Each structure stands twice: as structure tokens, then as C-alpha cells.
Amino acid sequence: MITHHIARFLGPAVVAASGLSASALTSAAVPFAAAQGCPDVQVVAARGTGEDPGPGPTVQAFIDNLRPRVAGKSFDVYSVNYPASDQWDTGIDGVKDAGAHVLSMARQCPNTKMVLSGYPRGAAIMGFVTPPAVPDGIGPTSVPKPLSPEIADHVSSVVLFGTPNERAMNFLGEPPVVIVPTF
Predict the structure, then answer these.
(1) DSSP 164
(2) Burial of 13 (0-12, 13-18, 19+ CB in 10 A)
(3) How far is CA 28 from the centre of its chain?
(4) Which residue from 149, 153, 131, 156 is spatially nearest to 43, judged by alpha carbons?
(5) Is residue 18 over pLDDT 90?
(6) pLDDT band at 147, cuts 50/70/90?
(7) How would you label 61-74 residue by residue, b for 16+ Cβ within 10 Å and e otherwise?
(8) Which residue has the higher pLDDT, 183 or 115?
(9) In sequence order, what are the residues at sequence separation of 6 or more whose Cβ sits closer than 8 angstroms to the Cβ of residue 26?
(10) pLDDT at res. 54
(11) C-beta of residue 61 within 8 angstroms of C-beta of residue 51
(12) Which of 1-5, 30-34, 59-63, 81-85 has the lowest mean pLDDT?
């Protein structure tokens, strides 16, 4: 099974942040959301393979740790909607859903700061949401259009756990997960 191969290549938890760390969210620099119903902070969570719908246990532990750090601010979680089955190619559904959600939140809730987070396949999904261009070797019509660099202004950090390394991604025939400095 592919998940056994992935698990063999997974490294330790990796935190990739651009500009702000999770602890930096506690500062007064996080603006309050202006639009009605918009949270000040939202975690966009992508679960791992075989995990039940929701953020998954690893990302939930991160959320539980983050929540008290943003006390006094409204806080929300969006769980990426995708089939986290053993079939690796279902991850594209997660990339599409996460990308569409991030874009929608940036437009509808411009002052909400998003934290993109995921665990193994969820980490890859979040990594594939952030590139400014379609990775080499991937047909541009088979993946969502990359998010514009302005969207990065709405993302406070990218926190990934158990990100599949380049060797694992090569094995799966996928491009490596790279978080660009913009994010």
C-alpha cells in the first residue's frame, strides 16, 4: 500500500513559517477581522491519509495549543474537504478545496489571518496550495491555478507536520513540497 511507503519516508514534524510563527499570533499585530462573521484567526487544516473528516489528531493537537495563544480574538477552523484515502491522487481534491477556501477567505474576510496546517498528505496539500507557479512536470490544466502573491498577505504562517520529503515525493511521481518565502 502506498501509505506504507509514505510512512517509511516521512521525516520528523516540520514547521514552515513565513514571517510569523505560531507564537507571534499572540501579538497585537494580528488585526481584528472587519467583515461580519469573519474570524480574526482561522486555521485551514488538512488531515492525513486514513484520518476521519476534520483536522485530524495531529493538527487538532496544534489547534488546541494555538487556541489559548489567541485568546481575546475570534478563532475558527476550516477542515479541508477531500477523500483522505490510500489513493494518493485524491490529494488534488484537497489542493483544489484548500486553494478555493484560502482565496474565498482572502476576498470575503480580508482581515482574517489564516494559518495553513496539515499532516503528511495534508502537509503536501498545503504545500501545493502555496507555490506561485505550477511545478515542473505537472500539466497546468490538471491542477488549480496558483494563488496570487497578494494572497500571502492573508496567511500568517504555514505549519506542516510530517511533510513528505523529496525522496518520498519522487517515489510517488510528485514534485517536492516547497513553501516559498512569500508564504
Answers:
(1) B
(2) middle
(3) 24
(4) 156
(5) no
(6) confident
(7) ebbeebeeebeebe
(8) 115
(9) 69, 70
(10) 96
(11) no
(12) 1-5
Its pTM stands at: 0.75
Q: How far apart are CA 135 and CA 133, in angstroms?
A: 6
Lowest mean pLDDT among 11-20, 37-46, 142-151, 161-170: 11-20
Neighbours of 32 (CB within 10 A): 13
Q: Which three cell numbers stand for residue 145?
A: 491555478
Amino acid at 183: F
Q: Angle at the Cα of 76 (from 39 to 149), degrees rounded to 5?
A: 70
Ranges of beta strands (E only) in the chain are: 41-46, 75-79, 113-118, 155-160
DSSP H stretches of helix in the chain: 2-9, 57-66, 91-108, 121-129, 166-171
First-last CA distance in the chain: 33
Contact (CB, 8 A) for 177 and 127: yes
The two beta strands, 75-79 and 113-118, are unpaired
With CA atoms as reference, report the closest residue to 40 among 106, 101, 111. 111
Residue pair 136/87 in contact (Cβ under 8 Å)? The answer is no
Task: Check whether 1 has a pLDDT greater than 70.
Answer: no
Cell of 138: 505537472
Could you give the C-alpha distances from 129 to 4, 35, 72, 148, in angstroms and in order? 25, 24, 29, 11
